[in-house]
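Practice set, problem 2.
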Amino acid sequence: MSVDKFLTEKNINVRAMKSKMADIWRPARGINIKEIKTGLFLFQFYHKDDMQWVVKGGPWSFDGAILVFNTVGNGEDPTKVLLNEVEFWIQIYDLPVGYMSESIGKQLGNFFGTFVQYDSSNNKSIWREFMRIRIKVDVRRPLKRKKKICKKDKSDVIVHCKYEKLGDLCFVCGLLTHTERFCSKRSTAESESVNKEWGSWLRAPPRRAGGSSRSKWLREEDDGDWGNKIDGGTNNEKFSGFQKSDLVQRRDNSNQESAFFSFDGADTNNSEMAKLAMQASQSK
């Protein structure tokens, strides 16, 4: 069982929230959600694996509001359980070459929050754009955005942080507990223009893009046995719907077909090139 609250100044539609969270999580044994007082909920799972899946898959949000939760022990008063921390996967960009190790990740994790886990599976790419680590964030403090690193050659570099599954936050003070509209710092500012040091750029892009299915001709970096995957694991003449003779014929015609493509980005007159290729073909 866990006690939960949403970080928001808005009123939560409790009925909609219950259905939405249950539909997202789909616990095998079901879930019971009860509001014990305004804005504070008890989430009762009927199997420990269901609860662990939710804990590891967070953060979660409803209507943009981040969900903060903590476990409740036997005989413990749920209204007195601290709800001050939430875990995020973060992506750290602009790291120098040689600074992608787990030891560096622990140091950075303990700067941006409290280090929890290093994503070693993010190391498989031939080129890593960012380091990925999981941290615990204190929601009473502003989100950290960047850090200056001093390299061995005494030069400095600034690395930037993005948060996965980041919900609403205040662009004025950087807190997760409210949006700019409800920020007291903004309401007490003397000038109309308030400096916003946080923004939507703190949200990390989705790690898996949606859309149509991947082309079977597109290789990933770890597709070591790609040839067998394409021809179905057999050595016969059939090659994914084409005959090998078709591939040979295509290579023979590659010189003529290449006249229709520009690989250097130059502006070419395709219609004129098509006419020339047609005339050359008819003259044979």
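Problem 2, part (b): a different protein.
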Amino acid sequence: MVTYNTMIHGFCKKGDLYTARRVLDRMKDSKDCLPSTVTYTTLIDGYCKKGELEEAMKCMSEMNKQGCLPGLFTYNALIRGSFNKGDIKNAQKVFDEMTCKRDIITYNTMIHGFCNNGDNYAQKVFDEMTCKRDIITYNTMIHGFCKNGDNYAQKVFDEMTCNRNMITYNTMIHGLVKKGDLDTARRFGLNEG
């Protein structure tokens, strides 16, 4: 099993998904070394990274039919792949259908994807998080609000429960300059925000 999974990972990393798929098919045909969740997830992640979301979803369907339960890494790969392909609905569908506990990577990927697409649903995901927010979560939300010219960025900044970093301040300054609020931007630049 480990040898097959390593081969599939190597072919995926190289971008040779055709050969990776053939290795998985050989495993299924052998009957003595069937693909596992790790095997399918490796191929799904490879498809997603190459922008082949439809193939990744087919692989997920096959995985379920084979009785392999998707794990957190499977879902996170599909969510990231969906957003990278611009398929917001599929990302939301995968997120909603998760059968395991979501982690910070899941939430940050959803928030980042929605913010990049100018979708206000990022706020809902942010508000409903069931794990502790980190600096990436806050910086992504602030960036999304600043990008859209929304005053809520200041509220998120003020409510941060972790230490701010240079990205936090630079994002706020950029958003304030973009809005024409140079006085407040100057105060942020002097770390008085």
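Answer key, part (b): The two ends are 55 Å apart (CA to CA). The chain has two domains: 1-99, 101-193.
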